[in-house]
Write a structure and sequence with these properties.
Chain lengths: 284, 262, 294, 289, 262
């Protein structure tokens, strides 16, 4: 082959100096990160505190009281008895919803006809509130783990499904043509073209679904159960144990935050090309 | 053999219709290298997509080796005009080139050597691990080209594949295409706006008219098979041919100016 | 709800769950007992005590209907609520009360004692249902410590029983009748076991309103008393009014067991419930139930 | 523009639709599309109804707990004649529309501002992630306390739940702007707000629409749930009455009414989307071929 | 006056760093038309983005009329190499051209006439109501150009703006640019791969070397102000200049080939 020689720019390898620089940057980065994460929550807690300390309302205890209740309620074996199984169900439900949502979303996104056929029914199902859905599921599935999972899936699958559909519909036609003419088909076509190019929107759906799954975990435990994080919150609410109720909500929030951190990691590695391309043309 | 018979294409999107191609008929014998020139917007890309089986013509037919083209035929590679968008941003340069090879039953080694050779041929040997969006426009275009040649197609369709590279690289790539074409006896259809390039590369130059698009002229390039950037381009026959093509395009556009006045 | 409205009537809002128990409230409105006492009442549906209590607290409701356990707990937790009128009372007849524990037809459970170790549905955990059912088991000589109570809304219990999801369910009317019609057996009348004249639920308000407007309270209590005795003596009127504010099937309405509607709640029965709650660990010490009543 | 050198590249003759009315294939196909999708949708609904009719009839589940759909529809038909039903529908729609509108505008406004200022986004991320998983139902006592049992509480719950759905979509949408388009706008001196209006907004529209569809359903769900638990008037309350009376058929009938509302909302959003996003790959590809 | 002083740009994405531009210093007096040529991937686009204030240089500085450029300066228009992606798909061709005009305080009539003139100048008068994705590549590129000229900028930066149009249109557009430049005395920086074009258009041709990129040569084009496609290109001075530029680029690439071997 005749060879053309144009090197694409000189590449400087990082030496030891840049490594120390990088560590320094990392340390500074961790500090800044902590400030970024904590600043607003601290302000909000102070605000809450200022508000509740003066006009004490029965339903809004001070942060101190909530923290006390939190320590008492959750920093004990209660966490293992009630919270851990709930988190397990939540993760299982989310995983099922992700799989179901992506598979159905790809199928419906690819076929306008399938979508036109299924959409009214799906929209119908989507509009049914879980409190009326649960009795039906109890009837169809029974009162068991599967029912709880079904509730979580039935609620959190929608953002994944809708976003996947839209992501799949928006695949760049030039890439579609590229795949067609190189006859990239089947599984490879699905994984290298469809899923990848829909992934930014799919990630949006998954992020939505994660917090919805937490909410539905709570709702699923409001029916036919006698344990679980959601159950504890509802029970505390009904028993007017308001600080305990808030401590449960606090735990949900913390759970949501922790999961979103993990999710962020996954997202960054899945979408590194996407972020990279964006950052690249901004020249940073 | 590639047969294009009475191809007519109308785009109908929104509230208006655009007749991109009126009526095109020509035949490209197997192993021929033809260049396609014509005014901007005359329907070259449209024609290419019809030939590639990416788009059905409104009427008329394309056949390749006696089989009507309804979907992209096997062993065909296309370099798209929108080279930037035809690269997968989530794959590295190497990944992009390797992807179409994966479904060919090749050993891993063979695949890797094909990729390396193609990258080397377009002068990007060190860019394999980069992502397309880390490359300049011209480099991206060369990646798209490398993908096509690594695929070792029987039919190669190229839509202005050298538009974004510098003159020197372009000359090298022209020679590369001719070398590959001779070596693998591919059928090549090459769209370009550079008249010199069309004459230098092709065995034949097809000139399209402005819309309503028909074949304005079909010029056989009777230059010697062995071509060389310096001597061929300096030959008087070359000059004659390029003048002929230039005039045809002028006519094509004047015709359009005249009709568009109505 | 505030003092306004034409004809010198005071407008008030009462929150109540749309079930059999609050028939007197609807009768009072329909029969004009409220108007007789200068009240113009708007009845708002709630889904139970948990929503009604904050509603009363916030002033959205002037009065509401809630069960005695919830009220004791709320009071324990420092919510200033007071009962102003009796709501609904057990019939005191074993096997013919408006609530009871039912088991599927082919169940091996034949008495309250056998419920030990069973999976029993109640509408709300740590509330009147499980305390009284535990009591029934104890009274019958069983051990309630390893009974598994699960939460489930009443409407879903008959289906769950039939599907074999549960060993037993504590149901109230009209689901008690539905369940019995399905062939289930009633094995305990938990209200009766707790106290034959158990006042299950009452109408209550916030202390603040009592201090601000004692006449209003008097009027409401008086109207309710009239209506309760009206209802207690005229079951056909109760059955009739049910068709207006519920969606119950008419044949079902004819079948159900109506509760008793005495004008005065039995304060001793509240005391009794308080004891049971302490026993089950719902609250720490025996509540001063007298404080709860006006 | 006489002094400018007019290049004479052939402008492509474009046939007006009016002129080409004689050419049926293209035009006909285009007009048929919405009808075709309506037809397919009806097929889907019919299939769904058939399943719902057959499953109870086969006796897989006791009929009294899962009545066949024909009986449910008959019940619904009876309710359709009652003004109380339509009042409930109106109450539901008002609470839903109000809640959705508030959530939508708040989420879009905040989403665009926060999404396009990286610092703001970095500093709010933790709080957002903390607040999102808090279920609206857990806020019911607080809502009742602050807003009473009227529409205020319902709105609080609806807005709280729907807000996050739209907000997250907007954040992702804002991040999805093509950097070249963004740079083009910057180089022509378009300011922050005009970039937001002319570049960021249109390119994030596909995400916003998905957010709107998600938010609309969640708002409907929360409207019903709030009415069901708090007892403010509307379909939810009717469901609650029916539930506590053990009138299962009525419950299902009302659920179908709710679902039908959801379907109608989706149809509206979809047709809006077809108009607004006609430039987008997802829409134009399907319209053209 | 445009001052580029010691501009150095390193892209650091992921785990590797790419030095796109090593050290560039040059001055462009106000109202000058300079062409920038250089091998593919040498950093022309990078430089242009730094000048446009779209990207901060790693070190060095760009000043325009004595003011350091940190953000895009007012009255500047850029034609991007990725013309396709720089057009807003949700706006029609007319909308695309009109958008930047909206923030200028112009009457509606004036705006419309500017749009119409610009469309006419690039030969797309009938494509106003089309969407960009309904146009061919070359037409899209001309829309991007029309948007820039309708804006009537003081500084015009163009990155291979004629790469996708045919020879005839290209010649017309070259003349268009020169006419506008003379009429409005803009400062123009024009990136191209076509050496003839660079010489024909510019008052000055800057040749960039391969990476590590510096200015290889800065050639004054001493052709008469009034240029003409036929006579100018036929003149012997033109041939001399284009040979000079060609050789410089050859040297630039050979240098690169030599250094890249190490
Ligand atoms: N999707 C589309 N919808 C409507 N019209 C289209 C579409 N694609 C292309 N056209 C029109 O068809 C005609 C031919 O376009 P095509 O892209 O084939 O031209 P081309 O010869 O490749 O031009 P260029 O040299 O500029 O790339 C143009 O007038 C264009 O406006
Ligand atoms: N985002 C990026 N990340 C990393 N490297 C980059 C990035 N953008 C450009 N480069 C590198 O910088 C160098 C210069 O790129 P640039 O786009 O400026 O070249 P160019 O002169 O415009 O080339 P062409 O003529 O091919 O358009 C190239 O080697 C390219 O690989
Ligand atoms: Mg083209
Ligand atoms: Mg470039």
């Amino acid at each position: 082959m005749t060879s053309v020689s144009t090197p694409g720019g000189a590449r400087t390898e990082n030496g030891a100096t840049s490594r120390t620089r990088r560590t320094a940057r990392l340390v500074r980065g961790a500090g800044a990160q902590a400030v970024r994460i904590l600043l607003l929550p601290v302000l909000l807690v102070l605000l809450w505190w200022g508000y509740t300390a003066t006009g004490s309302s029965y339903y809004m205890p001070t942060p101190g009281v909530i923290a006390g209740a939190f320590a008492e309620t959750w920093l004990s074996d209660q966490f293992f008895v009630h919270a851990l199984p709930s988190i397990g169900r939540l993760l299982a439900g989310f995983a099922l919803a992700a799989v179901a949502g992506v598979i159905a979303g790809v199928a419906l996104g690819l076929s306008p006809r399938a979508r036109a056929t299924a959409e009214p029914v799906l929209e119908f199902c989507r509009a049914i509130p879980p409190p009326v859905l649960v009795p039906l599921l109890m009837l169809l599935i029974g009162v068991n783990l599967q029912m709880k999972l079904a509730v979580i899936v039935a609620g959190s699958v929608w953002p994944i499904l809708l976003n996947t559909i839209e992501g799949v519909r928006a695949v760049d036609p030039v890439l579609v043509d590229t795949c067609r003419c190189y006859r990239i088909r089947g599984w490879r076509w699905l994984t290298t073209l469809v899923l990848r190019s829909a992934s930014p929107q799919m990630m949006a759906g998954l992020r939505q679904a994660l917090s919805i799954a937490i909410i539905l975990m709570v709702i699923s435990e409001m029916f036919a159960s006698s344990s679980g994080l959601g159950f504890r919150i509802v029970l505390a609410q009904r028993q007017f144990a308001i600080p305990e109720m808030w401590s449960g909500i606090l735990l949900l929030g913390l759970l949501g935050f922790a999961l979103s951190v993990v999710f962020g990691r996954v997202e960054r590695s899945v979408l590194h090309w996407y972020e990279g391309a964006r950052a690249a043309s901004r020249g940073t | 053999m590639l047969d294009v018979t009475g191809v007519h294409k109308v785009y109908s999107g929104g509230d208006r219709e655009v007749e991109a191609v009126r009526d095109l008929t020509f035949t490209l014998p197997e192993g021929e290298l033809a260049c396609l020139v014509g005014p901007s917007g005359c329907g070259k890309t449209t024609l290419l997509k019809c030939i590639a089986g990416l788009m059905p013509p409104t009427s008329g037919q394309v056949t390749l080796a006696q089989r009507p083209v309804a979907a992209p035929p096997p062993d065909m590679a296309v370099v798209f005009q929108e080279y930037g968008r035809s690269l997968f941003p989530w794959l590295t340069v190497r990944g992009n080139i390797e992807l179409p090879l994966k479904k060919k039953k090749l050993t891993r080694q063979r695949r890797e050597s094909l990729v390396a050779e193609a990258l080397d041929a377009v002068g990007l040997s060190s860019s394999g691990p980069s992502y397309p969006w880390q490359l300049s426009g011209g480099m991206q275009q060369r990646v798209a080209l490398a993908r096509a040649i690594a695929y070792e197609p029987r039919v190669l369709l190229m839509d202005e594949p050298f538009a974004a590279v510098d003159a020197q690289t372009r000359a090298d790539l022209e020679d590369l295409i001719r070398t590959l074409w001779q070596r693998f006896s591919m059928t090549v259809l090459f769209v370009t706006h550079d008249i010199d390039e069309a004459v230098y590369l092709g065995q034949r130059v097809l000139v399209l008219s402005s819309a309503p698009t028909v074949i304005q002229d079909d010029i056989a390039v009777d230059l010697p098979e062995e071509r060389d950037q310096l001597t061929t381009r300096a030959s008087s026959r070359f000059t004659e041919l390029r003048t002929r093509v230039y005039e045809e395009i002028q006519t094509a556009k004047r015709g359009a100016a005249a009709t568009s006045g109505k | 709800g505030d003092e306004s409205g034409g004809d010198d009537l005071t407008s008030i809002t009462v929150g109540a769950i749309p079930i059999v128990d609050v028939a007197p409230l609807h009768l009072a409105k329909e029969q004009g007992f409220f108007e007789d006492h200068g009240l113009k009442v708007e009845i708002k549906n709630t889904s139970g005590g948990a929503e009604a209590i904050p509603g009363v607290n916030s002033g959205s409701f002037d009065f509401a209907f809630g069960n005695i356990t919830s009220l004791i707990i709320a009071r324990e937790k420092g919510l200033p609520l007071k009962v102003v009128s009796n709501g609904v009372t057990s019939t005191g007849k074993e096997g013919a009360d408006f609530g009871g524990v039912v088991v599927p037809e082919d169940s091996s459970i034949s008495s309250a004692r056998d419920l030990a170790g069973a999976k029993i549905a109640v509408n709300n955990l740590e509330n009147i249902g499980d305390t009284t059912v535990r009591n029934s088991i104890r009274e019958d000589g069983g051990d309630p410590s390893n009974v598994e109570f699960v939460e489930m809304p009443f409407p879903d219990m008959p289906a769950a029983l039939e599907q074999g999801e549960l060993d037993a369910a504590w149901v109230v009317e009209p689901f008690r009748t539905t369940a019995l019609d399905d062939g289930t057996e009633e094995v305990a009348s938990n209200f009766v076991d707790a106290d034959p004249s158990l006042s299950i639920a009452s109408y209550f308000t916030r202390e603040e309103l009592i201090d601000d407007n004692p006449e209003l309270i008097e009027s409401f209590t008086a109207a309710m008393h009239e209506s309760l005795s009206y209802a207690d003596s005229r079951p056909e009127e109760v059955r009739r009014i049910l068709t207006t504010y519920t969606d119950m099937d008419e044949t079902l309405i004819e079948e159900i067991q109506l509760p008793a509607f005495p004008t005065e709640g039995d304060r001793d029965s509240a005391q009794r419930i308080g004891e049971l709650m302490v026993k089950d660990g719902l609250i720490d010490s025996k509540p001063d139930t007298d404080e709860l009543f006006l | 523009m006489n002094t400018m050198t007019g290049t004479s590249t052939g402008p492509v003759p474009t046939t007006d639709r009016s002129k080409s009315a004689a050419r049926p294939p293209a035009g006909g196909r285009r007009r048929r599309l919405p009808n075709e999708s309506a037809l397919l949708g009806s097929v889907g609904v019919a299939g769904f109804l058939a399943v719902c009719e057959i499953v109870p009839r086969l006796g897989l589940f006791p009929e009294k707990y899962l009545p066949p759909v024909s009986r449910i529809l008959a019940e619904l038909g009876q309710r359709l004649l009652l003004t109380s039903f339509w009042n409930a529908v109106a109450d539901t729609i008002i609470a839903w529309a109000l809640g959705l509108a508030i959530a939508f505008f708040a989420a879009v406004l905040l989403g665009f501002v926060i999404g396009s200022v990286p610092v703001l986004r970095a500093f709010t991320a933790s709080t957002v992630e903390f607040l999102r998983p808090i279920p609206s139902v857990a806020l019911i006592p607080l809502a009742i306390l602050v807003y009473g049992v009227d529409i205020g509480s319902t709105l609080l719950l609806v807005v709280y739940a729907a807000f996050w759905q739209i907000y997250i979509q907007v954040l992702y949408g804002v991040a999805d702007v093509d950097p070249v388009a963004e740079q083009t706008a910057r180089s022509y001196g378009l300011g922050y707000w005009s970039r937001l209006r002319h570049v960021v907004w249109p390119s994030s529209l596909p995400y916003v629409f998905t957010g709107l569809r998600l938010g609309a359903a969640v708002a409907l769900i929360l409207t019903i749930t709030a009415q069901l638990t708090i007892g403010s008037p509307g379909l939810g309350q009717q469901i609650q009455v029916a539930q506590s009376s053990g009138a299962l058929t009525a419950v299902y009938a009302l659920v179908i009414a709710t679902g039908a509302l959801g379907v109608l909302v989706n149809i509206a959003v979809r047709s809006l989307e077809r108009r607004v996003l006609r430039w987008h790959t997802s829409v134009r590809g399907e319209v053209a071929s």
